[in-house]
Amino acid sequence: MRRAAAAVVGVAVVVLVAGCAAPQGAPPWPRPTDLAARAQDAGLRDVWGQRLAEHVHTHVTITDGDEPVVIPGDIGHSAAEHFAAEVHTHDTSGIVHVESPERRTFTLGQFFDEWGVSLGPAHVGGLHGDLTVWVDGHRSYGNPRSIPLRDLEQVDLVVTTIGEVPRRPAAFDWPPQYH
Question: In sequence order, which residues have a C-beta less than 8 Å from that of residue 162 and are 6 or more positions away?
């Protein structure tokens, strides 16, 4: 009887651990509503109304095979709440804004942490397979979380079925106001 109870407890622990490690679902991934908490989790702060020393724009694309994934607007930003994290989006264009009162390096990993979407060397959210990363048209190897967000650069994350040849998205056509 004790052995059966121990087995049940062991199975329950395995199920709980497996549930905690379950992959995030497939896109679309919504914008977070708990802006301050998500920003804090990403090591970011609210800079609404502060004088800026740095203003950077990086374009990020995510592709599931050939299917583009929409990055929501207002990740880390709300005009109604007078909130702007140092890294945020305004719309669904894929342009990630870095606006900070101090000059420092912000990373793609911070943006994904703020969004609440997991990112690692072999996945984006619940998309698993081969992850190919390009930064300004050049292959990038290693953990994409460490990619710095730099002005007018393009970061492409392409998840394909294992063995499928990834296709780099077309270069982003920056609107004139960003040049």
Answer: 129, 130
Sign for the CA dihedral angle at 50, 106, 177, 90 comes to: negative
| 142 vs 122: CA distance, rounded Å | 10
**Between residues 115 and 26, which one has the greater pLDDT?**
115
Per the listing, tokens 């395995």 go with 14
CB 89 within 8 A of CB 72: yes
Q: Exposed, middle or buried: residue 28 (CB in 10 Å: 0-12, 13-18, 19+)?
A: exposed
Per-residue model confidence (pLDDT) at position 24: 80
- Cα 40 to the chain's mean position, in Å? 15
Kindly report the pTM of this predicted structure.
0.86
Please give the pLDDT value at position 179: 83
CA distances from 173 to 95, 170, 179 (A): 11, 9, 11
**Cβ atoms of 121 and 132 closer than 8 Å:** no
The alpha carbons of the chain give a radius of gyration, in whole angstroms, of 19
Tokens 């292959």 sit on residue: 139
Please measure the distance between the N-terminal and C-terminal CA atoms of the chain and give it in whole angstroms.
73
pLDDT of residue 72: 98
